[in-house]
Amino acid sequence: MKIQSIIQSTALASALLITVFAYTKGSKTLDVYWVDVDEKGEGTLIVTPADELILTDRGLWDYRNSNRTFRTPNK
Length: 75
What we know:
Blueprint: H1 2-25, E1 31-38, E2 41-47, E3 53-57, H2 66-71
Antiparallel strand pairs: 1-2, 2-3
């Protein structure tokens, strides 16, 4: 009977530690920001849980800013 209660206590403590560890490791979120970039459109900035950035431009496509748009992410 005593061994069974020790096993149950150990299992409960292990489950509690795993839950706490999983919660603290997975507490980062997916963040989405909408930005009004100019009079012709808007952009979306996505920050992933791995701290990776994804920037999209949902405005009208013209060749006026294409060089600057493609050059900026490479810096």
